[in-house]
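MoxR family ATPase structure dump, as promised
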Amino acid sequence: MSGDQPSAGDSADALDPAPIYEAVREEMGRVLIGNESAVEHLTIALFTRGHVLLEGVPGVAKTTLANLFARVTGLEYTRIQMTPDILPADITGTHVYRESTGTFELQRGPIFANMVVADEINRATPKTQSALLEAMQERRVTIEGETLTLPTPFMVVATQNPIEMEGVFELPEAQRDRFQFKLTVDLPDRTVERQLLDRFDDDPDLGPEAVDRVVTISDLVAARETVTQVHVAAPVKEYVLDLVAATRDHPDVTHGASPRATLAFLDGAKARAAIRGREYVIPDDVKALTESILVHRLVLSTDADLSDVTTADVVADVTDSVTSPGADAVELQPASDGGEKRE
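structure tokens r here:
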């Protein structure tokens, strides 16, 4: 860590997620231009034990984004280049025979890291993709009958290319559902791309190595506990249930969002409120996460597919059709210091 770069963990409010997020965002901004929404979602996922799926055409810095985030937060980082010939054991690890000792020794795979980047995940076969399922859900892996716990924190960031159709295997619904968020990393607009040109013209070697760690693992774990204490009023919970129910009842949807999506709303909204310095969730916290939580979870009907309806279209329709709690749902809740806080 550089001498002039303060750590969020050095301040008196070290357990407050807000200064941690600001420190992460500012440090990543030394290299990253734009994509602040992705930085926010990665931070929320880290605070809520979530996983993130990044989709975008080649060259939009999906992998660099994950690498930067890992370096700034001090997470041990591994990258797995997914290909059709990669095997589950290449991810989880296996027992290797050591001739010198005449014994089998466990060789851990790249899954044993704080952040695992599965690059171009849809190039791997379904069998290999399934090797990530237990890790993502249970935070553990089983290698030849031996169950091993993964590091804390642990998150998977997967990337995929939406325009590649040959030699790819679409993620099964069970796999997609385990990603808390799916984000689309778009091409930059002209203004942002000009800033990119100027920055790399000044420093052609600019990359993830240019950023410093700004927070400790212990602070990240403690900040997670702060997030769990964020208050969610009953009308906001009903709003979440209404959104999820609307996906299940939508005429263009065969299979709507699962209860895992409901919990993703709860956890994600708490973390979004916390990184904004609030101890309570507002409806806008839920609404802001609607597309990233739902867009990859919906299975459309055949008629919708034939009509070129997309899951993004359905999510937009659901968001517009479900009424969020208004001013009449505002409540006063007791605050921890004996006063009152407004929802």
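The chain is about 40% helix and 15% strand.
lmk if u need the other ones
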